[in-house]
Design a protein that fits this description.
Number of strands: 7
Mean pLDDT: 80
Number of helices: 1
Structural class: mainly beta
Number of domains: 1
Distance between the termini: 39 Å
Shape: flat
Largest sheet: 7 strands, antiparallel
Radius of gyration: 16 Å
């Protein structure tokens, strides 16, 4: 069962790394895997700007944009751009819970 869970996490979910200095920075970058499993590799780069923070500093709303590309070897490649809007909740231990939505353009090249 543990192997199945690890397989799902590694091959089906998107990983994300964020670069920021403090807990409530107004600007931050994100880098994520964009692709299907490991057979269609790609990368996604995003920029977010914090547009609103609650008075108690526990919730925030972000707005930003992402751009990415992936390849399907010996078939096609694709580019993707999209604006994003998201909600972020800060936990006491420093962790963050985030939910974002995006609607963009995906072009096969």
């Amino acid at each position: 069962m543990l192997r199945l869970v690890l397989f799902v996490v590694v091959f089906f979910l998107s990983g994300m790394a964020s670069a920021q200095n403090t807990k409530h920075d107004a600007h931050f970058l994100k880098l994520a895997y964009l692709g299907e499993k490991i057979t269609h590799p790609g990368l996604q780069l995003g920029y977010n700007y914090r547009i609103s923070v609650s008075q108690n500093q526990k919730q925030a709303i972000d707005f930003g944009a992402i751009a990415g590309a992936y390849t399907h070897p010996k078939n096609h490649a694709a580019l993707r751009i999209a604006p994003t809007i998201g909600y972020r909740y800060y936990l006491k231990n420093g962790w963050q819970l985030a939910l974002s939505a995006e609607c963009g353009y995906f072009q096969r090249i």
